[in-house]
Amino acid sequence: MTGKLKILTGIAASVLLTCMFIAPATAGANSLSLAYSWHTPHNHWPVSPSWPSGPGGYGGSPTARTTLASDDQATGLVLIDTTISYGYATASGTGMVIGQDGVIVTNHHVVAGSTSVTVTVPAGGAKYDAQVLGYDPAADVAVLKIDTLGLPTVTTNTADVTVGETVTTVGNAQGAGNLVASTGSVTNTGQDITVTNDDGTTSNLSDLVEFDANLVPGDSGGAVLDSAGEVVAMNVPGSTASRVAQNYGIPIATVLDIADDILAGSTGDGSITLGRTAALGIQVSTTANNILILGVVVSGPAAQAGVTPGSVLTAMDGSPLASVADLTDALHRHQPGDTVTITWTDQAGTPHTATTTLTQAGLA
User: Fold this and answer.
1) pTM exceeds 0.85 for this model
2) Across the chain, what does the average pLDDT equal?
3) Based on the domain organization, do 267 and 146 belong to the same domain?
4) Which residues lie closer than 8 Å to 270 by C-beta, 6 or more apart?
5) What pLDDT shows up at residue 201?
6) pLDDT of 69 higher than 60
7) Burial code of 3-14, b = ≥16 C-beta within 10 A, e = fewer?
């Protein structure tokens, strides 16, 4: 990915996605990888990170993590599957139900780039389309909502954990649709790590709990339980070092504080994004001096209007658009489901105007 393409799912998500890798903030420490699981319908899409084989390390071989969670350990946990970039790939993770009205928390990286999110309740297999209420990329927390009542919720414990305390991680290991458990102990608290994203940018996760209970892809967003079965943290990244179990969780107090802000409609300190932005479903050049359309998402709003690759988008609702920044601003003034009139010039130089309905953007 050269950075010359962007898909206008709010303008953010790059066309090719790669798994994110994490390095600890301290030099010389082991590399880390976010514990969510990719599924790849096309060969050019990324696979899960390269987990070490053999005993030790990141739980040894991921396939070795086969201890099914008990009913008590699984209470309040759900499976999450996301569609990435309008169907070109999918990813899987785990969520925790914190409200009987269907409010769920998970990691931001589980739903990042998604254009749809499906939640499955393991007991009975009921599936629900999830609405993303908001997310905080800096803290790696997202809040979802499904249309149901009365789901069992997790029991949380916001007290600080202590080094040596026994913990159990539970999650949708390998995205296989089963909740799997692994037991270990807290090895450190108050840990800061630096996340290196696929585009080379970095962000920090702070004040994490470190433990040696195993995590594998698909566990992200799942629960770290104390000996009483109460949630003390949310699974996030794990070590890819061959013989070092170095896994992390976001304290549940942090997760709940962010969820409270989002449910109150607050952006907190400004790091929270509420809901989704609107999208036309087009790929544009970020180096051209105009809005040059390089690709059109099949069945997306632009495609339905008749826009073709090679066209130049020139106006929305009669207001001229001269740059990608202009289009970004225009889309941010709308909500998914809004009807807009767009004007473009095709490759032959013929102008067109049509009305279309905006879709929801993939998450940044």
Assistant:
1) no
2) 79
3) yes
4) none
5) 56
6) yes
7) eebbbbbbbbbb
Contact between 22 and 49 (Cβ < 8 Å): no
Domain boundary, last residue among 218, 247, 273:
273
**Number of domains present in the structure of the chain:** 2
Cα diameter, the chain? 70
The count of other CB atoms within 10 Å of the CB of residue 112 is: 24
- Same domain membership, residue 248 and residue 117: yes
Backbone angles phi, psi at 45, to 5 degrees: -85, 150
Pairwise pLDDT comparison (157 vs 245), residue with the higher score: 157
Per-residue confidence (pLDDT) for residue 364, from 0 to 100:
59
Query: What CATH number did the domain enclosing 164 receive?
Result: 2.40.10.120
Q: Say which residue, 88 or 285, is predicted with more confidence.
A: 285
Burial code of 296-327, b = ≥16 C-beta within 10 A, e = fewer? bbeebbbbbbebeeebbbbbbeeeebeebebb
Is the same domain home to 240 and 304?
Answer: no
Whether residues 296 and 204 fall in one domain: no
Is residue 363 packed enough to be buried (19+ CB in 10 Å), middle (13-18) or exposed (0-12)? buried
| Helix/strand/coil percent split, the chain, to 5 | 10, 40, 50
Residue 83 lies in a domain: yes
Pairing outcome for strands 202-211 and 5-7: unpaired
